[in-house]
Amino acid sequence: MDFDISHLLDQWEFRPGQVLVRRFRGRDGSEKIQLRVDLGLLQMNLQGRPDGKRPCGFPSLFEYYQSRLYKHVATHEGEDAGFRLGAEDCAKLQLETLQYHQRCFCLLQLEEYAAVVRDAERNLAVLNFVSRHAGNTELAWSLGQFEPQIWLVLSRAKAAEALAARDHALAIEAVEEGLEHVRAFFREHGRSEAAEQSGEVCSLEALREEIEAQRPLTPRERLERALEEAVQREDYERAAQVRDELKNLTE
């Protein structure tokens, strides 16, 4: 068997600073994604668990642990008290979550926004699951620390979907939702002041400004801008005309 992949790397040059992703159909007929990294390739499945495995016969480890929780509840009078995730459980879920998170970035580059939303919302569900059932706060933090990054990716995907439909208001709403959750995360961990310097908040605020700049102006906004420009030029005749148009628009 020839293990050398040099010919594949030679055909796809790595470019520092760029996210190089491609989508293709594998020999097994399933769609796959490849990410070019400096020392090689990362390959993942487009559907299901990124590495294609079925841990314990389940589509993912998350679903396996969910099934364990359901069995626990069924045998404890409908209560989940006493169900705990240990250090090894949380470590396994962390590795799986990072797989999905890596795929999110690739899907975002490929503009597969619905799939990004699918994976990001799935990861948020894992974080909530671990936060509720981890044996201690340190174990919960092993996954909880990634929440701002997940909200960043999720917000960007939702905003991109909205912009594709030319719904700038919905896009801004998606970004503001992400900002709210990221800031809430920092508040809950006693780091409110650090939120505004975080990469996630800075990135989302920049995205919101970009969308605002692209948003078509309403008739009122166009007139208000024209009024401001007329006053700056000291064109008071034009300013009076615009004021009348604004008054008629209100009426």
Describe the overall structure.
This protein is mainly alpha-helical and 251 residues long. Among the domains are: 146-216; 220-250. The chain is 64% helix and 8% strand. A hairpin with a 5-residue loop joins β1 (20-25) and β2 (31-37). α6 (147-164) packs parallel to α9 (199-214). The longest helix has 23 residues, at 87-109. It is extended.
Explain briefly what this protein structure is:
With 251 residues, the protein is mainly alpha-helical.
Measured by DSSP, the beta-strand proportion falls in 5-15%
Spatial gap, N to C terminus: 79 Å
Question: What's the shape?
Answer: extended
Main β-sheet, spatial strand arrangement:
1-2-3
